[in-house]
Design goal:
It is built from 4 helices and 3 strands, in the order H-E-H-H-E-E-H. With about 100 residues, it is mainly α. The protein has one domain (about 5-95). It is globular, with a radius of gyration of 14 Å. About 15% of the residues are buried.
Length: about 100
């Protein structure tokens, strides 16, 4: 993790504790996949699809400034120019697709 990202993560821990970075969302999805292991192959595929969908949507936000996922709330930090996501909306978005995430 670079110094800029470390400062940003520290900042999220204080003022924006109810938000998370895109990297934190990706990590949560990856951890969910690892927890399933080989036993939950069908669910693993659903989490991979969720990760792909999240990455596509994040790219859309970066380049078009709007989300293709109506339930996924985000904002752009003015100083860091980073996109952050509301943790409860990310969890609700995943639950709407039948999956659980721990952020």
């Amino acid at each position: 993790m670079g110094a800029r990202q470390a400062v940003f993560e520290e900042f999220l821990g204080h003022k924006y504790a109810h938000h998370c970075s895109a990297e934190q969302v990706r990590t949560a999805i990856t951890e969910a996949i690892k927890l399933l292991g080989a036993h939950g192959e069908q669910d693993s595929e659903r989490y991979f699809a969720l990760l792909s969908r999240f990455n596509d949507n994040h790219s859309r936000i970066l380049y078009q400034g709007r989300s293709g996922e109506p339930f996924l709330e985000f904002c752009q930090h003015k100083l860091f120019k980073e996109i952050t996501y509301d943790k409860s909306s990310v969890q609700a978005w995943a639950q709407g697709l039948g999956l659980e995430l721990t952020l």
